[in-house]
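hiii so um. not sure if this is the right channel but i have a protein structure encoded as C-alpha cells and i wanna go backwards to a sequence. like what aa goes where. can anyone help
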C-alpha cells in the first residue's frame, strides 16, 4: 500500500483594508471602496491636467492619412506603424472623426511615406527585370520559383503589380545569386 502525501499550500495573505489592491481582490468594505475612489479621482484629475487629453482638429491627421493612401500605404500598415486603432484611422480618413487627442495626432503624423507594409502593391517592372536577367544567366523558371518558396514550380505573381514582400524576396534572391557569380 502506498502512503498518500498531502501538500500544504500556504494561503496568500490579502492586502490590508483601505488599499486599492484589497478592493481589486474583491473586498467592497467602506475603506476599500474609498481607496478605489481616491485612485480613480486622482487618475481622472491627472488626465485632465495632461496636455495629452486635449482634443485638436483631426484635419492635419486626415490630410496625412490621405497622403499616405496616395503613396499606397493603407490603414492596416498605418495601424502597425503607429499603434492607433484601425477603426479610428478609418474614421479620421473619412471625416467622421472631427477631433482627436494630441497624442493620437502625433502618432499618426510620425508615420512617413517610406513605410512599406508587406501587403502593399508596388510596380512589378523592377521585379520582372531582375527575373529576366536571372533567366538570361541560365536559371529556369521552376528553379527560381523553388528558391522563392513557391511550391508549384511556376512564378506566380502579376505582370503589373506585386506585393512589397515579393519584391523584397526577388531582390534578395537576385543579390545573392549575383554575388555568387
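sure thing!! here u go:
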Amino acid at each position: 500500500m502506498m502512503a498518500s502525501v498531502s501538500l500544504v499550500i500556504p494561503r496568500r495573505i490579502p492586502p490590508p483594508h483601505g488599499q486599492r489592491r484589497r478592493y481589486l481582490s474583491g473586498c467592497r468594505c467602506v475603506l476599500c471602496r474609498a481607496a478605489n475612489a481616491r485612485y480613480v479621482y486622482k487618475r481622472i484629475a491627472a488626465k485632465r491636467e495632461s496636455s495629452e487629453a486635449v482634443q485638436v482638429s483631426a484635419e492635419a491627421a486626415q490630410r496625412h492619412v490621405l497622403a499616405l493612401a496616395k503613396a499606397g500605404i493603407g490603414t492596416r500598415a498605418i495601424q502597425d506603424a503607429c499603434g492607433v486603432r484601425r477603426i479610428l484611422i478609418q474614421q479620421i480618413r473619412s471625416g467622421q472623426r472631427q477631433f482627436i487627442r494630441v497624442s493620437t495626432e502625433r502618432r499618426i503624423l510620425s508615420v512617413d511615406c517610406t513605410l512599406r507594409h508587406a501587403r502593399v502593391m508596388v510596380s512589378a517592372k523592377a521585379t520582372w527585370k531582375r527575373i529576366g536577367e536571372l533567366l538570361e544567366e541560365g536559371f529556369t523558371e521552376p528553379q527560381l520559383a523553388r528558391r522563392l518558396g513557391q511550391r508549384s514550380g511556376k512564378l506566380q505573381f502579376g505582370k503589373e503589380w506585386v506585393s512589397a514582400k515579393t519584391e523584397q524576396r526577388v531582390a534578395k534572391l537576385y543579390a545573392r545569386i549575383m554575388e555568387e557569380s
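oh and The mean pLDDT is 86.
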